[in-house]
């Protein structure tokens, strides 16, 4: 479906731009003009990861005549190989990066990173996704047995519990160091992808845009207000994928994308670009790390224009790297 390809392309660029904007959010003076510009960009892009989860749900939860062994064999090739290869690669990359800044590479605790599901900051998503894939066939059976209204209530209650957990985790610092239960919090997004693919409810676009903009303002304002009362780490609760502002923001975005079912340029171009999404997700931190090493970041320049420009450059270079690697045996890891 065209809108899903569009959603992948838009979401992966949003991921890259979010990571570019995160640098000044974390390193600029809280409340400065630089920080506020980055905060607004960051707040406006927080739907990117939920979009990927919803697309996965929209695709994987469709009824299919397929045995469990066949289902798992196909998805293992798609997810497990990239997870294993890039986990090993980024553990080595982290050691090299640590040494490049004059630190002791042995300080990188491999076991601690693996047990936390974060060999590198962005790989947590693959660790979470593996478990969603693991339980997807059982969610399929549940959906087939549910009336639509019951499924809607499951999604709403799931979001309520996930949002409460996200708030308590941030406020009380009770997060687990293990990654095995992460997928439980993303089940509502997974199911929502299926619901939105099939729902017939048509919400006027002006209301969706109004909801989106309201959530962005609430996110940016919430981060600042909470950070000023406590600290930036606590304030970033509003950036959480399951915060009370990001959940409705993500729902608005995917509905807008679903209703705009057109190719970005041509169908072939959109399809090709969409297929490179995972590779860009996996490789773009390398491009950013090299740029940061040479002091090229959104603080060095005016963030109002440097964030989108650096994002476009990072995305373009990452696309080039992925396209090149597609011609090598590493294509199976992308």
Keywords:
74% helix; globular; 0% strand; single chain; 334 residues; mainly alpha
Description:
By secondary structure, this protein is mainly alpha-helical. It has one domain (2-333). It has helices spanning 2-27, 33-44, 48-60, 68-100, 110-115, 124-145, 148-172, 182-198, 205-229, 232-235, 246-259, 267-275, 277-293, 303-325. The model has no long low-confidence stretch (mean pLDDT 90). It is found in: Cell membrane. Belongs to the acyltransferase 3 family. Keywords: Acyltransferase, Cell membrane, Membrane, Transferase, Transmembrane, Transmembrane helix. Residues 2-321 form the Acyltransferase domain.
Short summary of the structure?
The chain is mainly alpha-helical.
Residue stretches low in confidence (pLDDT < 50, at least 5 long) are: none
Number of strands: 0
Helix share of residues? over 70%
Straight-line distance between termini: 21 Å
Mean pLDDT: 90
Q: Give the ordered list of helices and strands.
A: HHHHHHHHHHHHHH
Total tally of structural domains? 1
Indicate the proportion of strand residues: under 5%
Largest sheet: none
> Total helix count?
14
Overall, the morphology is globular
Structural class: mainly alpha
Whole-angstrom Rg: 20 Å
Q: What's the SSE blueprint?
A:
Layout: H1 2-27, H2 33-44, H3 48-60, H4 68-100, H5 110-115, H6 124-145, H7 148-172, H8 182-198, H9 205-229, H10 232-235, H11 246-259, H12 267-275, H13 277-293, H14 303-325
Helix pairs in contact: 1-2, 1-3, 1-11, 1-12, 1-13, 1-14, 2-9, 3-6, 3-8, 3-11, 4-6, 6-8, 7-8, 9-11, 13-14
């Amino acid at each position: 479906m065209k809108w899903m390809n569009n959603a992948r392309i838009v979401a992966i660029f949003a991921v890259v731009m979010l990571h570019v904007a995160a640098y000044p959010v974390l390193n600029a003076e809280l409340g400065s003009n630089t920080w506020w510009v980055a905060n607004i960009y960051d707040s406006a892009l927080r739907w990117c990861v939920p979009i990927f989860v919803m697309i996965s749900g929209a695709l994987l939860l469709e009824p299919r005549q397929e045995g469990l062994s066949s289902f798992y064999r196909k998805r293992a090739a798609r997810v497990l190989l990239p997870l294993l290869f890039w986990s090993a690669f980024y553990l080595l990359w982290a050691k090299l990066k640590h040494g490049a800044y004059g630190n002791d590479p042995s300080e990188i605790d491999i076991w601690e990173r693996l047990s936390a599901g974060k060999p590198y900051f962005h790989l947590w998503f693959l660790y979470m996704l593996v478990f969603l894939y693991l339980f997807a066939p059982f969610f399929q059976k549940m959906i087939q047995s549910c009336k639509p209204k019951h499924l809607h209530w499951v999604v709403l209650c799931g979001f309520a519990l996930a949002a409460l957990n996200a708030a308590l985790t941030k406020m009380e610092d009770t997060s687990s160091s293990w990654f095995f239960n992460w997928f439980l919090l993303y089940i509502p997004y997974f199911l929502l992808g299926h619901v939105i693919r099939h729902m017939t409810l048509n919400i006027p676009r002006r209301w969706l845009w109004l909801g989106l903009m309201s959530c962005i303002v609430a996110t940016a304002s919430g981060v600042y207000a909470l950070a000023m009362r406590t600290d930036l780490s606590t304030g970033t609760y509003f950036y959480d994928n399951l915060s009370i502002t990001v959940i409705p923001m993500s729902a608005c975005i995917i509905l807008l994308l679903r209703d705009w079912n057109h190719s970005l340029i041509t169908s072939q171009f959109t399809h090709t670009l969409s297929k490179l999404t995972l590779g860009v997700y996996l490789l773009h931190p390398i491009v950013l790390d090299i740029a940061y090493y040479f002091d090229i970041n959104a603080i060095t320049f005016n963030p109002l224009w440097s964030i989108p420009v650096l994002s476009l450059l990072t995305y373009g270079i990452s696309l080039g790297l992925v396209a090149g690697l597609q011609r090598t045996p590493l294509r199976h890891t992308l």
